[in-house]
Amino acid sequence: MNIIEKIIAQKANKDFVKVGDEVTISVDLAIAHDVTAPMAIKQFKSINIDRVFNKDKVAFVMDHCIPCSTVESREQHNYIKEFSNQFGVKLFDKSEGVIHQVLREEKLCDTGDVVVGADSHTCTAGAYGALALPVGSTELAAVMALGTIDIEVPQTHLIKIEGQLKKGVYAKDIILHVIGKFGTNGFTDKGVIFTGETILNLTVEEKMTIANMMIEKGAMIGYIDQEKEMDTEKIGEVSDITCISAEDIKPVAACPSSPANIKPVEEIEGTKINQVVVGSCTNGRYSDMEIIANVLKDRKASDDVTLIVVPASKKVLDKMEENGLCKIIRDAGAIIINPGCGPCFGAHQGLLNKGDVAITTTNRNFPGRMGHKDAKIYLASPRVVAESAVKGYIVRPGTVIPLEV
């Protein structure tokens, strides 16, 4: 068995599982946010259960519309609060941050745990070795009641990346490179394990960027190898292996309108932009904020650009304030908004209009994702995004400040 199958077998209380087996596994954490939780609660109530399977293993995070952007979203928040009070489940409703960042910071799950979440980017938890499964609200309701989920053991594809990354290449470039190579449905219903010297030497925050976008290539399960000794034999048997040289990965961007429409930044250099967003569960962590602050220090964003910065959590924002990053970023002309999903999913706090062109560190650029369906969205690393904000058009990393800095 490989490392994904071992976790499945353990949680199914079996000695062995193989691809295609249908098993019932125990769940260590069930999560939802303010958009998906109301439907899950409604479904939960419809089956007349008077308690969740374990109130310490169910959590809701208000992150998509906080503060509320509409009367309807306020109604949803109140509905979630009422349920949380009644059933005693964990609730994060003070703009603590994006659900996947809060999960990590509050240590709600750990290596080897099974996390089921009503959000497609639940896969972020694969960065620290959790088996993270995104589900719909109806399925989450059943998990909230039973504490188990039925799954089919998937085929597993191993992606091994070895070598030294070039200067100006970040974790975002790694995952965009892979999505561009395999497409948005390249791993549908499969598990994917990332390993290799390059991956294992990344920080947890960088691994979270990669795991976060596993779903953009269709993976059912995204998992980052946790073995520091880099013994790939411990990963176990997989169906396919792809080896990638780190030296072949360039600074890239996902161009309109698919995360798989990948081009080297140098090919789109000069593209005019009028909005820049830094943040989200993909690249809203402190290390991302350090990157943009280094670029923006003593500089201004272009007059033609609206620069929006969304810390992934209150703890990230606190650290930014303590270390002076907020002043640097604000002095550059940026708008720092409260921790949460912000404009990433197109509900509020900086929507795009027809004709707008944005470059962002977020994870999706489908038509209408951040506002009007005719707006154009480019996805790139924090470094490319910050330098482009200064210039007012897309530039390769190293244009504003040398890559050695």
UniProtKB/TrEMBL annotation:
PROSITE patterns: ACONITASE_1
Record keyword Thylakoid present: no
Classification via Gene3D superfamilies: Aconitase, domain 3
Top-rank taxon, per record: Bacteria
Record Pfam families: Aconitase
Catalytic EC class: lyase
Entry keyword set: 4Fe-4S, Iron, Iron-sulfur, Lyase, Metal-binding
EC id: 4.2.1.33
Cofactor annotation: [4Fe-4S] cluster
GO annotation, biological process: L-leucine biosynthetic process
Domain Aconitase/3-isopropylmalate dehydratase large subunit alpha/beta/alpha: 5-230, 261-392
Protein name: Aconitase/3-isopropylmalate dehydratase large subunit family protein
Record GO terms (molecular function): 3-isopropylmalate dehydratase activity; 4 iron, 4 sulfur cluster binding; metal ion binding
Family as reported in the entry's similarity comment: Belongs to the aconitase/IPM isomerase family.
Species per Swiss-Prot/TrEMBL record: Proteinivorax hydrogeniformans
